[in-house]
């Protein structure tokens, strides 16, 4: 049952008066449940509980933290069809996607639990003493990590499970000993409440301290602002727009004690396709990319919004084929009326720029459904117009026809930072790709060869992040085991007796 | 020969009109050389050269970069006595210290060169493909790191060699493929010019691209501000005051593209001494700490400025003995008249606070020499007065007499972030120290047992950094091999052909 209340520690509260509902975008109707925004007092109470919980939680054994994470996974699975129905009602995404994302969320939680079985993530280093070194003895020095403290997590609109309440940010922070206070996403507050309940039940069942997790309902931006400004919040995880992420980054930078903000934000995910690839496999790539551009109604942060090639008859054919194929796909609903209207606005703005031609046939779509489209522009127009470099969040891509390789390289060098870049080529191209690879990797966090950027594998080698503005700090990743590095900091012990060292630094 | 010019790439320039001299604090006289502050055009030229150099330098082999670092070390050693004399003339520090710091600087450069022999620093991770995985094949993913780009380095006043022109920040950035633009410290511009010349000769001899290193003379703060604001500077390393570091952090946060600033700033380095340690070894520790507090005229970032104990006859005896012993040490000169006057001002401010008593006898000292001192205050007065928590940069320490262990823990919990913390105890204390260790390590970057915080070992397990404001980001260290992590970011390659992967990610 949905109560519409925030979780402040283990208890549900709703002392405020600001209420809101979520929307079923498919039906274009409000859902039945009424949510109450958390008050300032509730926010402060959640943070103070997190601070007190931190003292206990940071010293709870890794095997007990692993039990907690696995229990969250179990509780999420136990939500069964209720969760799937709620997810679909609040996002318009299909059941298959709901199931897939739930599996991913559960997999992430269990993967972090498994990570805790070893000390590999602790950046351990041991230098034993050299007492007879001259001119001065060398002390015994051992390094490990400590959790930063309570983390504020802002989930995304487009992944209501895997990048939200119990998503990668929450799972990685809880894994390393940081309590988490989630700002619930207003577009899927019901999904958030179900998941928050699962986390709270898991915390209670495994004996975790109250305050290790809270879930704050929010209608506007005030809840998030108060969270980020609070002195007892020590780090922030965010997935969403550049505007939203930058606002939080700025707030955090203005604190008396600045704190790290890891925001994974926008990206247009450039794709370079070579002349050989166009000649030998142009049709295949047009079909593949029609699928990638429209996957999840184009609402992936890794959606390929920019395709770069060098002017040729084959590039023209590829672009036309892509435009033809993309409109054969059934239009799909977007997450929310606001997202649909932003898509329409941004698409019009980009396609209205000088030199841009829309190649795909116009589509008639229902309310909140996206009319996918493909446009094209030449390299000079693209280079000189920063508006064309902005993200159109939705199933849209622009093909840039470059004069020559020099212009292609110039465009790549002048791109803003990107989550991903992709190179599509034939084997015969390999000897000539080194410069493109070198320039592309300077601008992206992940470089894909002969594939699509959509789809972010959860594994140790994944990097999900990239140069600004695709993320706020490219030295960290939001996905994969390495993502715990965002929430821990270094500590060295000098000449510490064995009994006072943490387990991972003791001899043997 | 000192020209007083900046190094813009390989050439020396001085087109500006703002000049300044360094000061010999021992003689209280200006040194002979005249330095010219870099102009805006020179700053931009240096940065643009660094940007162009970056394209080549990032792809130079690690063995060639190691040759460059070793050549810098050789060139610094070849400066011989000229460097030592200049160092002493500009800092007032003794020859022994000059030699020690030069050895440390050279050791750091050679250590980073050695680091480049293996790929351990590259955060390598390889996940091979599972083509038959269901429901979707697993791609081949491999992760490594890339250099961020040109780094601006601000050296410290108190370590003219090891934390300055060719110090840890420069050596670690150059090691991983980042060009460096140094803002020369105005108090030791001559030492800076000698070292910059050594770096430039090494770059030329080993075939490095021009622009890989520049050294900008600066009298005021404008050179540094322009550096940090420039879009082609991609990271900042700083060692100095909280005020200076925070100003750069704020500037970097306000950029269109925010960049990471690693600033290692102030710290009062708390020391806790147990009742048993006072009883059994009070005199020994009083003598040891008299030495540590006055080491380098107290001008170490790890200087122990705060000693915490629980009220007792033995704590009183220890404090009196420390006060007696400290004044038997010959007063030493400070780095600069400005630093001496700041010391006098800060010491007066702290000792003038309510409840503070100065226990050491007043010392008559020559101009620019520091009159070391020890004061004491009770725990309640310390807790309620933030002025007593501020750093007095120089040979000064305050002993806090806590009511009981609860008050001691409250004081520790309320300390600002610190580079180091120290616990002095007897073996019989060990079973009772877990809470103190846990609270102390929350506030510090390095925890020392039965020793002194002064002395920062250069080794893999060292952490030199700590919670704000001791540093701007406790997830990184300024000293040791791990410090390269500040200047590199993650990159993943998905399904990349072997020939396009960097060496460290290729099979076998």
Supply the CATH architecture of the largest domain in chain A: 3-Layer(aba) Sandwich
* Poorly predicted segments of chain A: none
Q: What's the mean pLDDT score of chain A?
A: 97
Counted by DSSP, the helix tally of chain A is 14
Oligomer: homodimer
Q: What do we call the CATH topology of the largest domain in chain A? A: Aldehyde Dehydrogenase, Chain A, domain 1
Largest interface: A-B, 72 and 72 residues
Strand order of the largest sheet of chain A: 16-17-18-15-14-19-20
Structural account:
Two copies of one chain form a homodimer. Chain A folds into two domains: about 5-265 and about 470-505, Aldehyde Dehydrogenase, Chain A, domain 1 (3-Layer(aba) Sandwich), CATH 3.40.605; about 270-450, Aldehyde Dehydrogenase, Chain A, domain 2 (3-Layer(aba) Sandwich), CATH 3.40.309. Chain A has 14 helices and 21 strands. The first copy, chain A, has helices spanning about 40-55, 60-80, 80-90, 95-115, 170-175, 190-205, 220-230, 240-255, 275-295, 315-325, 335-350, 380-385, 405-415, 435-445, and strands at about 5-10, 10-15, 20, 25, 30, 35, 125, 140-145, 150-155, 180-185, 215, 235-240, 260-265, 270-275, 305-310, 355-360, 375-380, 395-400, 420-425, 445-450, 490-495. In chain A, the strands form six sheets. In chain A, strands 16-17-18-15-14-19-20 form a seven-stranded mixed sheet, with helices on both faces. In chain A, strands 11-10-9-12-13 form a five-stranded parallel sheet, with helices on both faces. In chain A, strand 9 (about 150-155), helix 5 (about 170-175) and strand 10 (about 180-185) form a beta-alpha-beta unit. Chain A is globular, with a radius of gyration of 24 Å. Chains A and B meet through strand 7, strand 8, helix 8, helix 14 and strand 20 of A and strand 7, strand 8, helix 8, helix 14 and strand 20 of B.
């Amino acid at each position: 049952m949905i109560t519409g209340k925030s979780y402040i520690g283990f208890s549900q509260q709703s002392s405020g008066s600001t209420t809101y509902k979520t929307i079923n975008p498919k039906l274009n109707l409000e859902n039945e449940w009424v949510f109450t925004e958390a008050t300032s007092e509730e926010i402060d109470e959640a943070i103070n509980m997190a601070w007190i919980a931190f003292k206990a939680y940071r010293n709870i054994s890794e095997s007990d933290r692993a039990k907690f994470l696995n229990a969250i996974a179990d509780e999420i699975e136990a939500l069964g069809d209720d969760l799937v129905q709620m997810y679909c009602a609040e996002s318009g995404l299909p059941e298959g996607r709901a199931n897939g994302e739930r599996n991913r969320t559960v997999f992430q939680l269990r993967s972090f639990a498994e990570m805790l079985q070893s000390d590999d993530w602790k950046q351990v280093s041991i230098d034993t003493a050299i007492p007879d070194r001259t001119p001065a003895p060398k002390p015994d020095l051992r390094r490990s990590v400590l959790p930063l403290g309570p983390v504020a997590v802002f989930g995304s609109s487009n992944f209501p499970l895997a990048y939200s309440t119990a998503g990668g940010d929450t799972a990685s922070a809880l894994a390393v000993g940081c309590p988490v206070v989630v700002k619930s996403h207003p577009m899927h507050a019901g999904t958030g409440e179900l998941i928050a309940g699962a986390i709270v039940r898991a915390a209670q069942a495994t004996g975790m301290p109250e305050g290790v997790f809270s879930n704050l309902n929010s209608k506007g931006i005030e809840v998030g602002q108060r969270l980020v400004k609070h002195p007892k919040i020590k780090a922030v995880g965010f997935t969403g727009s550049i505007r939203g992420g930058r606002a939080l980054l700025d707030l955090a930078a203005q604190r008396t004690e600045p704190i790290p903000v890891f925001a994974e934000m926008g990206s247009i995910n450039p794709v370079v396709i070579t002349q050989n690839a166009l000649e030998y496999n142009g049709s295949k790539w047009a079909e593949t990319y029609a699928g990638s551009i429209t996957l999840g109604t184009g609402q992936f942060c890794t959606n390929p919004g920019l395709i770069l090639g060098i002017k040729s008859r084959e590039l023209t054919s590829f672009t036309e084929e892509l435009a033809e194929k993309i409109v054969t796909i059934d239009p799909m609903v977007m997450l929310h009326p606001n997202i649909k209207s932003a898509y329409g606005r941004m698409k019009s703005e980009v396609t209205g720029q000088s030199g841009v031609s829309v190649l795909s046939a116009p589509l008639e779509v229902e309310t909140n459904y996206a009319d996918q489209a493909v446009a094209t522009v030449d390299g000079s127009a693209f280079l000189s117009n920063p508006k064309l470099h902005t993200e159109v969040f939705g199933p849209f891509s622009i093909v840039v026809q470059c004069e020559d390789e020099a212009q292609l390289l110039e465009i790549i060098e002048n791109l803003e930072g990107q989550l991903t870049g992709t190179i599509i080529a034939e084997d015969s191209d390999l000897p000539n790709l080194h410069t493109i690879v070198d320039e592309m990797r300077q601008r992206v966090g992940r470089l894909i060869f002969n594939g699509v950027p959509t789809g972010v594998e959860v594994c140790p080698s994944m990097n999900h992040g990239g140069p600004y503005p695709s993320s706020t700090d490219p030295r960290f990743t939001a996905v994969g085991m390495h993502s715990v590095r965002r929430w821990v900091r270094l500590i060295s012990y000098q000449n510490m007796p064995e009994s006072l060292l943490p387990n991972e630094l003791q001899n043997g």
